[in-house]
Amino acid sequence: MAKAELISVAFVCRHQEGIWNGVSSDQFGEQTAFRIGKGGLKGMTLSPEMVAEWIDSFPITAYISDTMQHLYPADASETRNVPRHKEEGQKRREMDADDRRRISIELSKMSHPLENQSPHLYNIANGSFAPPESQINVAESVSIGKKMVSEFRASLPSGFHATISSPLKTMENIKKGVKVGDKKIFDLETIFLRLLTIGQQRQMELALIFQYELCPIPPSLIDEYGCLRKGSKAPLAHKLCVQTARPCPPDLTIVDVSQLLYRIVWPCRGDASIIVESIKTRLSSRPGKKVLAFDKYHEISAKDHERMRRAGLGSINYDLTINTPLPKRDAIMRNKHNKLQLSKVLSTYNFGKDVTVESRSDGIFAHDEADITMISYLLMAAKSGTEVVRVLSDDTDVFVLLVYWVYRHQIQATVHMERWDLI
């Protein structure tokens, strides 16, 4: 009788006690076979090897199932089983509370969506507004979803396999250009405003520029997305570089901190002191004096456009202190505000008696870019009689600047540039 009930799947089995742990008898047998035969659920259940293994283990599976029935009295009721699901356990509640705490911390770093008085949609992460003509409909997602459900139900059964495309438009979907036929038409007004802004910052004579016939979209300057085109400088560096197998030990080492931060172990939920110790360890084997050059990140910079490109749309500003747990490396290194915060924090530490920190708050050069600061230290060291200077950086811009200024000033000192990825 028990065998007939087993074959007809008339009852459920449990690997452990609890009303939520019941599985059908055939599934119980299959799970038992997997656990005994392979040590876990792995591979394809219908493979020839698995089928042969399951058949061989069927007798022991049936025996275990029958034995488990005798573990419970005949008058056992459901009240003896554990009435609580695993989702309600103490460990799961602690994990849920930790998730809510992390979400609250992340939201506290962003702008409050209801504090802004603009009638347009507002991105709480980057602070940008959706233009009224963009037709963004994220705020109507619930009504759009209900309409799609009604249309899908009306199309059944013939429309069951039809493709469902999302009609929602987010701020990320805003196009900088519209394709008309084979051509892409850009927002020329925005590009013209950029030209005016750059012209005012760089004190350009716009009247002189407009005396010449201008291409509406200069392909050498503007890419297909409407952004300034970034040229490739790697071929130039390969043409100019001369590799040295055994360079002389340097009297002065100038370090590009932005590149160094990519070559150290980034702390996992640790503070800035871990970065400081990593930098000290990385520089401990370097002889002579050392200079750590930070970018100063002034309010207005010629590199702002490139920094905005690196940051992307979802960049979040963090308020960093000495004791603040650091976020991920990309969250810091791709955001101008966050890199400035980190440089201020690192500048408060002591890196050693032979290390000079050149930052926004503590430095002798006022230029925004660390590239220019490194060249300035090189020229100052060469003028003071330093014989061997080494620059640690992976940046091609730094290499091109070194070649130019060493040639222009006819520097007699030995100058080497060493890449971090070759160390």
UniProtKB/TrEMBL annotation:
<feature type="region of interest" description="Disordered">
    <location>
        <begin position="77"/>
        <end position="100"/>
    </location>
</feature>
<protein>
    <submittedName>
        <fullName>Uncharacterized protein</fullName>
    </submittedName>
</protein>
<feature type="compositionally biased region" description="Basic and acidic residues">
    <location>
        <begin position="84"/>
        <end position="100"/>
    </location>
</feature>
